[in-house]
Amino acid sequence: MTRVLVVDDDPQIVRALVINLKARTYEVDAAHDGATALRLAAARHPDVVVLDLGLPDMDGVEVIRGLRGWTRVPILVLSARHSSDEKVAALDAGADDYVTKPFGVDELLARLRAAVRRAEPAHGEGDVIVDTGEFTVDLAAKKVDRRGKDVRLTPTEWHLLEVLVRNSGRLVGQKQLLQEVWGPSYGTETNYLRVYMAQLRRKLEADPSHPKHFITEPGMGYRFEK
Amino acid sequence: MTRVLVVDDDPQIVRALVINLKARTYEVDAAHDGATALRLAAARHPDVVVLDLGLPDMDGVEVIRGLRGWTRVPILVLSARHSSDEKVAALDAGADDYVTKPFGVDELLARLRAAVRRAEPAHGEGDVIVDTGEFTVDLAAKKVDRRGKDVRLTPTEWHLLEVLVRNSGRLVGQKQLLQEVWGPSYGTETNYLRVYMAQLRRKLEADPSHPKHFITEPGMGYRFEK
DNA sequence: GCACACTTTGACGGAACCCTGACGCTGCCG
DNA sequence: CGGCAGCGTCAGGGTTCCGTCAAAGTGTGC
Domain Response regulatory spans what residues (chains A, B) (predicted)? Predict the structure, then answer.
């Protein structure tokens, strides 16, 4: 579960945030001043910090620096100040986002989700991979794995696979497929498709003559299914 | 250098941003519609994308999805819409930040710095030393060790090795390789690659004619594998 | 101005890849 | 039942791409 540390000296705001976050099954800690915030952060290791800049005991930017001294936890700053200098100072001190009061709860939550999401450990070096159970496709690394072994694809095969995977689950018309892989003037050379789909299936499908992932939609196009 | 992709259909805004960014020594690409944006992102691998939502050819959220299909590059959304729903939709589609027009340039740049900063590999966390069993590469010290002995590399050889190792496991396109090592105008001099890959293999591979770590992907590029 | 190391360039054999045409199969319709 | 259209399969030939080598160019330090 995601743990949030809410820091604000206004009990109303803290209360509202805590209720909203708990309702969405976040785990919430709250602090009313900077010293408590730093202590709680160290003790509880939150996944994200929501920090009001107007604290009674210390400057908000100092809290950010205190946190950044030892952690890269996402910090989402709340502030009543609209001044550009304030924002720049907070962001350059290490904050991840800056929301001015009054704020919409929906927006705040969306920004919080974004902050948490990007802090998640990336697969490998930060790549999105598609897994079918039989093989995996790593689009950024241009890598296909099948039972632990790398599958070698030619440029055309890869390009075709790429277009299909990017439209995973959706039907891709043969004209679109041809034009994206071979170029705008190749919209009718459907035999290319037949040849290369066969190669992809031979290299990736467990039973190439009964494909489970590269589906033919007769007369229309092809579809990639996990 | 940090590379930024600016996407906006308003030439004024693009111009203003490009000037501001270049003055701060960012490298800037610009696109005025979604299709161009996606193509440029794939071709140039920017470190951060500044994306206006109101594009002429496609919905901005679709551009975000198109990018998120294969990359985690930070996306900073610009928009004239203040509606909370718009923000939530963009952020949940995978955007990292959302700035409403009109925006302060200082604030935008600060948010951009924040986005780039947190995308950087963690300090001291990233493995500076890569070990293949046959040889080790120390990126920080710029040293290569093979069976206890230092391997002497020329500047170009090192530069090439560095790019490959930084993308360990991933395929690096020959154009990208050429442009990163020799400069933006050398994107087609593939014979350089052939010569220098051969030298790297001769110096580092146990059996240079059957490379295990510097893999050729014909027609696409090269890949470094531990 | 010479020696040395590095980069660039050109040429060539061989490997990998892409296109192409032919054929068989299936399902549909006349 | 026969013809037709769409799809899958296969193999050969032309073309592109890669590894290798050698030699010419470039720059730097002595």
Answer: 3-116
